[in-house]
Specification:
By secondary structure, the chain is of the alpha+beta class. It folds into three domains: 160 residues, no CATH class; 86 residues, 2-Layer Sandwich (Phosphorylase Kinase, domain 1), CATH 3.30.200; 198 residues, Transferase(Phosphotransferase) domain 1 (Transferase(Phosphotransferase), domain 1), CATH 1.10.510.10. It is built from 13 helices and 23 strands. It has a seven-stranded mixed beta sheet, covered by helices on one side. A six-stranded mixed beta sheet has the order 14-18-19-17-16-15, sandwiched between helices. A hairpin with a 2-residue loop joins β1 and β2.
Length: 606
């Protein structure tokens, strides 16, 4: 063991000694200079798109548009205001911000959580968080700065809610439990605090965002040390800053040590094979524990099993149960009500639990259920959600089995469908990574006290880079009746976000028809597959009979059915995106919707 540590230390020191000359050689090899707008000197490691192939590095490529230097970072676009080669920082500003207009907001989130190991950039230590928050009731707190003077329209608001929404901004790093009741975070962005004091006024916050945020880039061997942590106002922020750099430094020393072993011919292949063998022998608990340890920036809180028992009062009030396990009502120490899902035996080595924590644990949206925390102790696994769903799941109102379930109007069903569409569209486009749900169905749509829908159950969800139009899957996933055909028939197109569009279409069809899409007990054989029958009705100029519905309700039902028919087209390329479903279809006029092709279940029917 001692010999191994000595070898690793020697390897790291050896590469550190080589670093200056190697950097110098690399700089001489790429001695190119460009300019664009207010950035007069663009040189290594940066390059412009039109520079010679050997200039700079591709991962630091910039664009010059309308005499402005543009940085494409993840799925966002930013104006480059300054490149400081001494500090190794690049200052960028979100393109959504406008001068002298505090109602203009950033288009993308940019915080420490947006970066991971291996990325070419990191946020500077001298960065503060700005949280844009929407609340259902006014908040009386010095931390919450009222956004009313800016007349901000939050993107997280749903058109479902008829209540007034109050918008605030909070300048600080916030944990989920710091949120006031009835509030949700719409957007979190960072801005530079270098050499500045924040006076917590709206104009000052807007001006600091216009000044931008500093990103640090890697030098030749990837060392990324914080130039200064003195910009932090309190001790915890300073400790967090220093700890982040120490972790980064140690992790990169490990990478250098591995590189040195390869250089000296140590049999890394043997180590890799041993690692793979050990990984296969891990139990489900070890796999989940490994995930938590390697993702130490998870936002959800980790509770102990004793905490779970206390908050549920010994699991006394059960809310429901299913194949996944049981759900119990609980209360945090703050008095906040929660729903605790105790998971049964998991498949795929705990992968469904990992999926849930990794995806829903880092997102916030008005129409997506919020994960507060989780518990992992031996075989005990639990997920703790915000308890705001007293009306249960949507399936109870589409297929009522008990008389006590109230019947929802077509207007309310339409509003619910619009909210679900907003939630799915956020998963596809509102995050730095696109999240594909793969299990959109009535049972996974929860309704709060105002019947506002929340997309839930991310056990089958997968995250992919935002620029991946086609994604890879090892097998079909989802629920029969809602699964897209490309999950079964590989020759009709690749798997993409259009799989969720198909599932939403099947859900929307059931909401409009108030029945299951496939019903072998239908009175007439032509009505067994409801989408096909509904298409024939409209194609023949007939309306669907819905009892004593008003003319306005009939228009809403027709709109929902037509949109659903577009969403369940057999080929993925013929389905619209969720953005188009919302803007051009559900929020548009029914007279402007054209009739799509007839829906089919199999290639043989096509």
């Amino acid at each position: 063991m001692l010999r191994r540590l000595l070898f690793d230390g020697f390897a790291a020191i050896f590469l550190l000694l080589l670093r200056p000359t190697t950097c110098k050689a690399k700089l001489n090899h790429h001695l190119c200079h460009s300019s664009c707008g207010n950035i007069p000197d663009i040189s290594y490691p940066f390059r412009l798109k039109d520079d010679r192939p050997r200039c700079g590095e591709r991962k630091y490529e910039l664009a010059c548009e309308n005499n402005r230097t543009i940085l494409q970072l993840n799925s966002g676009r930013y104006y480059v205001e300054e490149i400081n080669y001494t500090r190794e920082t690049i200052r960028v500003v979100d393109t959504g911000l406008k001068k002298d207009d505090c109602s203009s907001l950033p288009l993308h989130s940019l915080t420490y959580a947006n970066f991971s190991y291996g990325d070419p950039y990191r946020l500077s230590c001298e960065t503060s968080d700005v949280n844009f928050i929407d609340c259902e009731a006014p908040i009386n707190s010095p931390l919450y700065i009222d956004m009313a003077p800016c007349s901000r329209n939050s993107s997280s608001n749903s058109s479902l809610s008829s209540m007034q929404t109050y918008s605030y901004v909070v300048v600080r790093h916030m944990a989920l439990l710091d949120l006031e009741d009835s509030c949700s975070v719409g957007l979190v962005v960072g801005f530079s605090t270098r050499g500045q004091k924040i006076d917590n006024s709206l104009p000052d916050i807007h001006n600091r965002q216009l000044y931008g945020v500093d990103l640090r880039w890697f030098n030749c061997f990837g060392f990324l040390l914080c130039p200064s942590c003195d910009g932090k106002d309190n001790l915890m922020d300073k400790l967090y800053c220093i700890a982040e750099d120490l972790v980064e430094f140690v992790s990169q020393l490990t990478v250098l040590a591995v590189a040195a072993k390869i250089f000296f011919g140590v049999p890394c292949v043997l180590i890799f094979l041993i690692y793979k063998w050990k990984r296969r022998s891990l139990s489900m608990y070890h796999a989940i524990e490994e995930f938590i340890q390697t993702h130490n920036n998870l936002k959800p809180i980790r509770f102990s099993y004793s905490n779970i028992k206390k908050m549920t009062k010994g699991f006394t009030e059960k809310l429901g149960e299913g194949g996944y396990g049981s759900v119990y009502k609980g209360k945090l120490k703050s008095g906040h009500l929660v729903a605790v899902k105790m998971l049964a035996n998991s498949k795929a080595n705990g992968q469904d639990f990992i999926n849930e924590v990794a995806t829903i644990g880092r997102i916030h949206h008005f129409n997506v259920v919020q994960l507060i925390g989780f518990c992992v102790e031996g075989s005990k696994r639990a997920l703790v959600y915000d308890f705001m769903m007293p009306n249960g799941s949507l399936d109870k109102y589409i297929f009522p089995e008990k008389e006590e379930h109230i019947s929802l109007s077509f207007e309310k069903m339409y509003q619910i469908s619009l909210g679900v569409a907003h939630g799915i569209e956020y998963l596809h486009r509102g995050c730095d990574m696109q999240i594909l749900h793969f299990d959109i169905k009535p049972h996974n749509i929860l309704l709060d006290k105002n019947f506002t829908p929340k997309v839930s159950d991310f056990g089958l969800a997968k995250s992919y880079p935002a620029d991946h139009s086609i994604v890879s899957l090892t097998g079909a996933r989802g629920t029969r009746g809602y699964m897209a055909p490309e999950l079964f028939y590989k020759n009709i197109g690749g798997v993409s976000y259009k799989a969720d569009v198909y599932s939403f279409g099947m859900l929307l069809m059931e909401m409009a028809g108030r029945r299951r899409n496939l019903n072998v007990f239908a009175e007439h054989s032509s009505q067994i597959y409801f989408p096909s029958w509904a298409y024939d009705q409209f194609n023949e100029g007939k309306d669907i009979e819905i009892g004593d519905a008003t003319e306005e309700e009939q228009k809403l039902e027709k709109k929902m059915v037509l949109v659903a028919l577009w969403c369940i087209q057999f080929k993925p390329s013929e389905r619209p995106s969720m953005h188009r479903v919302i803007i051009e279809m559900l929020e548009g006029k029914v007279d402007q919707l054209q009739m799509p092709s007839k829906p089919f279940l199999t290639p043989q029917e096509v």
